[in-house]
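Notes, p. 3: input format for complexes.
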Amino acid sequence: MKETEIQVLKIIEKNANLGVAKIAKMMGKSEQEIQQVIDDLEDKKAILGYSTLIDWAKVVEHEEVTAMVDVKVTPARGVGFDKVAERIYRFPEVKAVYLMSGAYDLSVTVNGKTMMDIGKFISEKLSALDSVLSTTTHFVLKRYKHDGFILEDDDEDDKRIVVSP
Amino acid sequence: MSKKSFVSKHVEDLKPSGIRRFFDVAAQMEDVISLGVGEPDFVTPWNFIEQSFHSLEQGYTSYTENAGMIELRKEISTYLNGNFQLDYDPAEQVIVTVGASQAIDLALRAVVEPSDEVIVVEPSFVAYVPTVSLAGGTPVTIQAEADNEFKLTAEAIEEAVTPRTKAIMLCNPNNPTGTFLTKEELEPIAEVIEKHDLVALSDEIYAELTYDASYTSFPSLAGMKERTILISGFSKAFAMTGWRLGYAAGPPDLIAAMVKIHQYTMMCAPTMAQHAALEAMKNGRPSVRDMFESYKQRRNFIVTSLNEMGLDCPNPGGAFYAFPSIKATGLSSAEFAEQLLHEEQVAVVPGDVFGESGEGYIRCSYATSLKQLDKAMDRMKRFVESRTPKTVS
Ligand SMILES: Cc1ncc(COP(=O)(O)O)c(C=O)c1O
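Output follows (558 residues plus pyridoxal-5'-phosphate):
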């Protein structure tokens, strides 16, 4: 991949909300050039989408529970874990699926409105899959840091004196 | 009878810092976006801080060797070798100081005799001239020329040299101009320095923050190592200003002289800061790299913005300062800075506080988040537009 492309990715990975004009200025390039780079990256699916990191804990009306499920599966001949992973990731409740090294095979992140919902999903859908041997479910109690962002009310005030040599 | 002052004449005679005066005004105001800050906006990387905690837990709370912990001096020596191809013996050629500030002070006191002249290239870091005076020397200033992007030339040095010239202060990349000198531009300077048998005090605290070309450390030039005191520190690239940690490297006799002053006046640099610096040297590279990338993006952003609003600003090759001309507004540097502060709550530093050739310019530090920079540029644009006559097309 070209250096400019990598630079653009690094910038928008941190903040997808900058807009082409600002990114162009930061890189000392023209807006057209940056737009082209972004279009290409989208075509290549290097950029999959743009989402916003939200601290839902700040929204009292919002009910959401997250569980991380360790799943042991039997891989299928020829396709290994991919087929069963696909069976799992197609469920909209599933937010992430990773193949893991170590004691279990797939790490599955599941979101639901309540613990009951998640329990229902795991017992009725996930465990019910033929190739799933076992599941161990961990509910998230509190998020401190997510995708590089600290969720605690960090004191980010500038502590520097206003003018210095 | 009026009370006689107990303050010594030579301190009384020192000019008060122009920055200080400006700071007092800016500090009183609300909602100020400051582009006046000469230090990183990043908090020190966590692993450095954590290492310092650990050292305290382990009970490392006493003095270190005068010249600094030998482990740290070794790491500094390795770092200088790896990054700038310099070869300094950690035991005899490196001293750890309380910031580059103290290294400058020690270096000057170690070389300057009462009748000596020391050349300072302005616009310059505000401490050089007074520190030369405090060391008992006579500062002789050269005004770097805006037309030459404030680059020091061999000819300018040649004109300033007298039989009493002992040393020259160099700063590359430069605060406040951001000017960066390449190897080819430094070589003729080295030649005059050798010709006149001068000591070079090379402040390379911004060496890591050079954006467009590779850095040449002054003592790596032919014949310069024997006559250069390299001064640097952790404040800028490592985001460690408050830890007060710097260092100098140079010929053994000069470093020994500096250690001699240091042992009587300072004992040693702060121990907990030395531990943090040790971690910075060993494992600081990724953090330094990340901050570097941010500074570079912000530089591009601010330089483009300044030029777009009609303030002529050449691309500074290093440090984290842009030094645009404000002549198009018809205001003096001080007027520009004061009016901008009062009308738009943006603090910049008037260029003339760094030397007379800085008149007509302002220093804008881009060690500030992009979000703040963006806001500051909008405000400044509005201000500049209100001061420049609209050209009717
Ligand atoms: C050119 C230059 N040298 C030295 C220093 C002092 O740095 P330290 O914090 O290491 O004393 C500064 C700080 O602004 C500087 O800009």
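Residues 31-43 of chain A form the longest helix (13 residues).
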